[in-house]
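Side project, low priority. Logging it here so it doesn't get lost.
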Amino acid sequence: MSIGWARGLLDEALRPALRAIHADPGRSWRVEELARHSAMSRTVFAERFATVVGKPPLAYLTGWRMYAARRALRGEDVRVDELAMRLGYSTASAFSTAFRREVGESPRAYRTRFTGHEAVPAAG
């Protein structure tokens, strides 16, 4: 992860919000909720987070989700639709769109490139 992430964990005020994101990346977080974890107003929290971490809180959340997705796709036997739900996306399509935007390729292509295996077949 970036230096901003490490700086955020060293910031006593931001640490509770970052821990919450890391513990439950699939939750539908709102900036107001994260600010409450850090005992700050929404505005002060958002400004401090962006300054210390280097990106706004929800952009960081998306990045963390994609980090978790890349790790899972490289090392787990998980279907894309299951991974999407675990990481807070309502559909595999929404997750795939976000993944492609962040990573530059589809989750299936990413998995194949790193593991040499096609996607895990759908259940049923």
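Brief comment: The longest helix spans residues 57-75.
Revisit when time allows.
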